Amino acid sequence: MAIVDPEITEPDISEPEIINVEHAHPTDWLYVKVAIALALLTALEVFTYFESVHGWSDTVLIVMLVAMMLVKFFLVVAFFMHLKFDAPIFWRLFVFGVVLAMAIYMLMLTAFRYW
Amino acid sequence: MAAEAINHSAQEQDHHSSTGISNEKLAMWVFLGSECLLFGGLISTYMFNKDRIGLNDIGPSDVFDIPFTSVSSFVLLMSSLTMVFAVSAITRGDLRANRIWLATTAALGATFVAGQVYEFTAFYSEGLGFTTNLFGSSFYALTGFHGAHVTIGIIMLMSLYIMSLRGNLPAERAETVEIIGLYWHFVDIVWIVIFTIVYLFPQ
Q1: What architecture does CATH give domain B64-203?
Q2: What ipTM, to 2 d.p.?
Q3: Considering only A39-53, B109-123, B142-156, which range has the smallest mean pLDDT?
Q4: A3, A13, A45, B168: least buried by Cβ within 10 Å?
Protein backbone atom coordinates (compact mmCIF):
# COMPACT_ATOMS: atom_id res chain seq x y z
CA MET A 1 0.00 0.00 0.00
CA ALA A 2 1.41 3.38 -0.95
CA ILE A 3 1.94 5.84 1.89
CA VAL A 4 0.97 9.37 1.02
CA ASP A 5 2.81 12.14 2.88
CA PRO A 6 0.39 15.04 3.34
CA GLU A 7 3.32 17.52 3.35
CA ILE A 8 4.31 16.58 -0.19
CA THR A 9 2.01 17.80 -2.87
CA GLU A 10 2.15 17.16 -6.55
CA PRO A 11 3.19 20.22 -8.58
CA ASP A 12 0.35 21.72 -10.53
CA ILE A 13 1.29 21.12 -14.15
CA SER A 14 -2.11 21.80 -15.60
CA GLU A 15 -1.32 25.49 -16.24
CA PRO A 16 1.71 26.38 -18.40
CA GLU A 17 4.33 28.69 -16.93
CA ILE A 18 3.65 32.12 -18.33
CA ILE A 19 6.65 34.33 -18.87
CA ASN A 20 5.97 37.86 -17.71
CA VAL A 21 6.18 40.02 -20.81
CA GLU A 22 6.34 43.76 -20.38
CA HIS A 23 4.51 45.34 -23.31
CA ALA A 24 6.04 48.77 -23.41
CA HIS A 25 7.36 50.71 -26.38
CA PRO A 26 9.61 53.75 -26.27
CA THR A 27 8.32 57.02 -27.66
CA ASP A 28 9.35 58.28 -31.12
CA TRP A 29 11.32 61.08 -29.44
CA LEU A 30 13.40 58.48 -27.56
CA TYR A 31 14.15 56.79 -30.92
CA VAL A 32 15.29 60.16 -32.33
CA LYS A 33 17.59 60.69 -29.34
CA VAL A 34 19.10 57.21 -29.84
CA ALA A 35 19.60 57.94 -33.56
CA ILE A 36 21.35 61.24 -32.72
CA ALA A 37 23.66 59.38 -30.32
CA LEU A 38 24.40 56.80 -33.06
CA ALA A 39 25.17 59.53 -35.60
CA LEU A 40 27.47 61.36 -33.18
CA LEU A 41 29.31 58.14 -32.31
CA THR A 42 29.76 57.34 -36.02
CA ALA A 43 31.15 60.83 -36.60
CA LEU A 44 33.53 60.34 -33.67
CA GLU A 45 34.64 56.97 -35.08
CA VAL A 46 35.42 58.51 -38.47
CA PHE A 47 37.21 61.42 -36.76
CA THR A 48 39.31 58.85 -34.85
CA TYR A 49 40.24 57.21 -38.15
CA PHE A 50 41.53 60.46 -39.65
CA GLU A 51 43.19 61.49 -36.40
CA SER A 52 45.29 58.28 -36.56
CA VAL A 53 47.26 60.02 -39.31
CA HIS A 54 48.61 62.37 -36.63
CA GLY A 55 50.34 59.62 -34.72
CA TRP A 56 47.95 58.08 -32.19
CA SER A 57 49.07 54.58 -31.21
CA ASP A 58 47.20 51.69 -32.82
CA THR A 59 46.32 50.17 -29.44
CA VAL A 60 44.64 53.37 -28.22
CA LEU A 61 42.73 53.71 -31.50
CA ILE A 62 41.53 50.10 -31.45
CA VAL A 63 40.37 50.34 -27.82
CA MET A 64 38.47 53.58 -28.57
CA LEU A 65 36.91 52.18 -31.75
CA VAL A 66 35.81 48.95 -30.05
CA ALA A 67 34.30 50.90 -27.14
CA MET A 68 32.28 53.11 -29.52
CA MET A 69 31.26 50.09 -31.60
CA LEU A 70 29.96 48.30 -28.49
CA VAL A 71 27.96 51.34 -27.37
CA LYS A 72 26.37 51.64 -30.84
CA PHE A 73 25.66 47.89 -30.88
CA PHE A 74 24.01 48.09 -27.44
CA LEU A 75 21.91 51.15 -28.34
CA VAL A 76 20.44 49.49 -31.43
CA VAL A 77 19.80 46.16 -29.69
CA ALA A 78 18.34 47.66 -26.50
CA PHE A 79 16.15 50.40 -28.00
CA PHE A 80 15.52 49.79 -31.71
CA MET A 81 15.19 46.03 -31.23
CA HIS A 82 13.20 46.60 -28.00
CA LEU A 83 15.25 44.13 -25.96
CA LYS A 84 15.27 46.57 -23.04
CA PHE A 85 11.47 46.42 -22.93
CA ASP A 86 10.79 42.87 -24.13
CA ALA A 87 10.75 39.40 -22.58
CA PRO A 88 14.12 38.48 -21.00
CA ILE A 89 14.24 35.20 -22.95
CA PHE A 90 14.87 37.13 -26.21
CA TRP A 91 17.82 38.90 -24.63
CA ARG A 92 19.24 35.59 -23.36
CA LEU A 93 18.86 33.90 -26.75
CA PHE A 94 20.63 36.71 -28.58
CA VAL A 95 23.42 37.08 -26.02
CA PHE A 96 23.95 33.30 -26.18
CA GLY A 97 24.48 33.55 -29.96
CA VAL A 98 26.83 36.54 -29.66
CA VAL A 99 28.90 35.01 -26.85
CA LEU A 100 29.07 31.61 -28.57
CA ALA A 101 30.24 33.21 -31.83
CA MET A 102 32.86 35.33 -30.05
CA ALA A 103 34.16 32.35 -28.05
CA ILE A 104 34.40 30.06 -31.08
CA TYR A 105 36.15 32.56 -33.34
CA MET A 106 38.48 33.90 -30.63
CA LEU A 107 39.55 30.29 -30.08
CA MET A 108 39.93 29.79 -33.83
CA LEU A 109 42.09 32.92 -34.19
CA THR A 110 44.16 31.85 -31.18
CA ALA A 111 44.65 28.39 -32.68
CA PHE A 112 45.97 30.04 -35.86
CA ARG A 113 48.30 32.30 -33.78
CA TYR A 114 46.55 35.46 -34.98
CA TRP A 115 47.30 37.58 -31.90
CA MET B 1 14.90 57.01 -20.65
CA ALA B 2 12.66 54.21 -19.42
CA ALA B 3 10.33 56.79 -17.94
CA GLU B 4 9.53 57.91 -21.45
CA ALA B 5 8.28 54.50 -22.40
CA ILE B 6 4.59 54.44 -23.02
CA ASN B 7 2.38 51.44 -22.61
CA HIS B 8 0.43 50.11 -25.54
CA SER B 9 -0.79 46.96 -23.88
CA ALA B 10 -4.31 47.47 -25.17
CA GLN B 11 -3.05 47.31 -28.73
CA GLU B 12 -0.79 44.32 -28.23
CA GLN B 13 -1.79 41.01 -29.67
CA ASP B 14 -2.58 38.04 -27.47
CA HIS B 15 0.02 35.34 -27.82
CA HIS B 16 -1.62 31.93 -27.75
CA SER B 17 1.49 29.94 -26.96
CA SER B 18 2.50 27.81 -24.00
CA THR B 19 4.99 30.45 -22.85
CA GLY B 20 2.85 33.53 -23.34
CA ILE B 21 5.31 35.02 -25.81
CA SER B 22 5.07 35.04 -29.57
CA ASN B 23 6.47 31.92 -31.23
CA GLU B 24 7.24 33.89 -34.42
CA LYS B 25 9.26 36.47 -32.52
CA LEU B 26 11.05 33.75 -30.58
CA ALA B 27 11.93 32.02 -33.86
CA MET B 28 13.32 35.28 -35.27
CA TRP B 29 15.54 35.76 -32.21
CA VAL B 30 16.81 32.17 -32.47
CA PHE B 31 17.55 32.81 -36.17
CA LEU B 32 19.37 36.06 -35.36
CA GLY B 33 21.41 34.28 -32.69
CA SER B 34 22.48 31.71 -35.29
CA GLU B 35 23.30 34.50 -37.76
CA CYS B 36 25.87 35.78 -35.24
CA LEU B 37 27.81 32.57 -35.93
CA LEU B 38 27.69 33.10 -39.71
CA PHE B 39 28.93 36.68 -39.56
CA GLY B 40 31.37 35.87 -36.74
CA GLY B 41 32.98 33.31 -39.05
CA LEU B 42 33.18 35.74 -41.96
CA ILE B 43 34.56 38.59 -39.82
CA SER B 44 37.21 36.44 -38.15
CA THR B 45 38.20 35.00 -41.56
CA TYR B 46 38.64 38.56 -42.83
CA MET B 47 40.73 39.52 -39.77
CA PHE B 48 42.93 36.48 -40.32
CA ASN B 49 43.42 37.08 -44.06
CA LYS B 50 43.54 40.85 -44.51
CA ASP B 51 47.33 41.07 -44.08
CA ARG B 52 48.16 37.87 -45.96
CA ILE B 53 49.05 39.66 -49.19
CA GLY B 54 52.22 39.96 -51.26
CA LEU B 55 54.65 42.90 -51.09
CA ASN B 56 53.30 44.67 -54.16
CA ASP B 57 49.81 43.25 -53.81
CA ILE B 58 46.73 45.45 -53.45
CA GLY B 59 45.61 45.79 -49.81
CA PRO B 60 42.96 47.54 -47.69
CA SER B 61 44.75 50.91 -47.52
CA ASP B 62 45.02 51.00 -51.33
CA VAL B 63 41.30 50.76 -52.02
CA PHE B 64 39.22 51.90 -49.05
CA ASP B 65 37.41 55.23 -49.40
CA ILE B 66 36.50 56.02 -45.78
CA PRO B 67 34.44 59.21 -46.38
CA PHE B 68 32.26 57.39 -48.93
CA THR B 69 31.76 54.33 -46.70
CA SER B 70 31.04 56.60 -43.72
CA VAL B 71 28.14 58.16 -45.62
CA SER B 72 26.84 54.68 -46.55
CA SER B 73 27.08 53.63 -42.88
CA PHE B 74 25.17 56.73 -41.81
CA VAL B 75 22.43 55.97 -44.35
CA LEU B 76 22.05 52.41 -43.01
CA LEU B 77 21.99 53.65 -39.40
CA MET B 78 19.23 56.12 -40.22
CA SER B 79 17.25 53.35 -41.93
CA SER B 80 17.01 51.72 -38.50
CA LEU B 81 15.37 54.91 -37.21
CA THR B 82 12.81 54.92 -40.03
CA MET B 83 12.17 51.20 -39.36
CA VAL B 84 11.25 51.84 -35.71
CA PHE B 85 9.00 54.68 -36.90
CA ALA B 86 7.24 52.14 -39.17
CA VAL B 87 6.70 49.78 -36.22
CA SER B 88 5.56 52.66 -34.04
CA ALA B 89 3.09 53.84 -36.71
CA ILE B 90 1.39 50.46 -37.18
CA THR B 91 1.28 49.90 -33.40
CA ARG B 92 -0.82 53.06 -33.00
CA GLY B 93 -2.92 52.09 -36.04
CA ASP B 94 -1.59 54.71 -38.47
CA LEU B 95 -1.36 52.56 -41.63
CA ARG B 96 -0.49 55.41 -44.00
CA ALA B 97 2.47 56.50 -41.87
CA ASN B 98 3.49 52.86 -41.64
CA ARG B 99 3.62 52.60 -45.45
CA ILE B 100 5.60 55.84 -45.74
CA TRP B 101 8.21 54.69 -43.21
CA LEU B 102 8.44 51.20 -44.74
CA ALA B 103 9.08 52.73 -48.18
CA THR B 104 11.61 55.18 -46.69
CA THR B 105 13.47 52.34 -44.97
CA ALA B 106 13.55 50.31 -48.20
CA ALA B 107 14.83 53.37 -50.11
CA LEU B 108 17.61 53.98 -47.58
CA GLY B 109 18.53 50.29 -47.73
CA ALA B 110 18.61 50.45 -51.53
CA THR B 111 20.88 53.51 -51.31
CA PHE B 112 23.26 51.53 -49.10
CA VAL B 113 23.27 48.57 -51.53
CA ALA B 114 23.82 50.93 -54.48
CA GLY B 115 26.80 52.38 -52.61
CA GLN B 116 28.16 48.90 -52.07
CA VAL B 117 27.78 48.05 -55.77
CA TYR B 118 29.63 51.28 -56.63
CA GLU B 119 32.36 50.43 -54.10
CA PHE B 120 32.79 46.89 -55.48
CA THR B 121 32.97 48.26 -59.04
CA ALA B 122 35.59 50.85 -58.02
CA PHE B 123 37.68 48.24 -56.18
CA TYR B 124 37.51 45.88 -59.16
CA SER B 125 38.63 48.62 -61.55
CA GLU B 126 41.56 49.30 -59.20
CA GLY B 127 42.61 45.66 -59.56
CA LEU B 128 41.02 43.95 -56.55
CA GLY B 129 39.04 40.95 -57.77
CA PHE B 130 37.48 38.13 -55.75
CA THR B 131 40.47 35.88 -56.48
CA THR B 132 43.23 38.52 -56.52
CA ASN B 133 44.42 37.65 -53.02
CA LEU B 134 43.15 36.44 -49.63
CA PHE B 135 42.23 39.98 -48.60
CA GLY B 136 40.01 40.37 -51.69
CA SER B 137 38.33 36.99 -51.22
CA SER B 138 37.54 37.49 -47.53
CA PHE B 139 36.51 41.15 -48.03
CA TYR B 140 34.09 40.41 -50.87
CA ALA B 141 32.71 37.34 -49.06
CA LEU B 142 32.03 39.29 -45.86
CA THR B 143 30.59 42.49 -47.34
CA GLY B 144 28.85 40.56 -50.13
CA PHE B 145 27.00 38.34 -47.62
CA HIS B 146 26.01 41.45 -45.70
CA GLY B 147 24.81 43.16 -48.88
CA ALA B 148 22.75 40.05 -49.72
CA HIS B 149 21.13 40.25 -46.29
CA VAL B 150 20.27 43.92 -46.84
CA THR B 151 18.80 43.06 -50.25
CA ILE B 152 16.62 40.33 -48.70
CA GLY B 153 15.52 42.90 -46.10
CA ILE B 154 14.52 45.34 -48.84
CA ILE B 155 12.45 42.62 -50.54
CA MET B 156 10.69 41.87 -47.24
CA LEU B 157 10.02 45.58 -46.62
CA MET B 158 8.57 46.03 -50.10
CA SER B 159 6.43 42.91 -49.59
CA LEU B 160 5.04 44.48 -46.40
CA TYR B 161 4.42 47.71 -48.31
CA ILE B 162 2.45 45.90 -51.02
CA MET B 163 0.55 43.88 -48.41
CA SER B 164 -0.39 47.13 -46.67
CA LEU B 165 -1.54 48.72 -49.96
CA ARG B 166 -3.78 45.70 -50.58
CA GLY B 167 -5.21 45.93 -47.07
CA ASN B 168 -3.56 42.74 -45.87
CA LEU B 169 -1.48 44.42 -43.17
CA PRO B 170 -3.92 45.80 -40.60
CA ALA B 171 -2.88 47.18 -37.22
CA GLU B 172 -3.59 43.75 -35.68
CA ARG B 173 -0.57 42.41 -37.58
CA ALA B 174 1.85 44.94 -36.10
CA GLU B 175 4.01 42.11 -34.85
CA THR B 176 4.79 41.03 -38.44
CA VAL B 177 6.31 44.47 -39.08
CA GLU B 178 8.16 44.29 -35.75
CA ILE B 179 9.68 40.89 -36.67
CA ILE B 180 10.87 42.12 -40.07
CA GLY B 181 12.18 45.16 -38.19
CA LEU B 182 14.26 42.88 -35.94
CA TYR B 183 15.91 41.41 -39.04
CA TRP B 184 16.55 44.89 -40.42
CA HIS B 185 18.13 46.12 -37.18
CA PHE B 186 20.28 42.99 -37.11
CA VAL B 187 21.82 43.76 -40.51
CA ASP B 188 22.44 47.27 -39.14
CA ILE B 189 24.34 46.03 -36.07
CA VAL B 190 26.35 43.63 -38.24
CA TRP B 191 27.36 46.65 -40.34
CA ILE B 192 28.30 48.57 -37.17
CA VAL B 193 30.80 45.78 -36.44
CA ILE B 194 32.00 45.46 -40.07
CA PHE B 195 32.48 49.21 -40.47
CA THR B 196 34.66 49.40 -37.37
CA ILE B 197 36.71 46.23 -37.83
CA VAL B 198 37.10 46.20 -41.61
CA TYR B 199 37.26 49.90 -42.49
CA LEU B 200 38.31 51.87 -39.40
CA PHE B 201 40.80 49.61 -37.62
CA PRO B 202 44.35 50.80 -38.33
CA GLN B 203 45.68 48.97 -41.40
Answers
A1: Up-down Bundle (1.20)
A2: 0.89
A3: A39-53
A4: A3
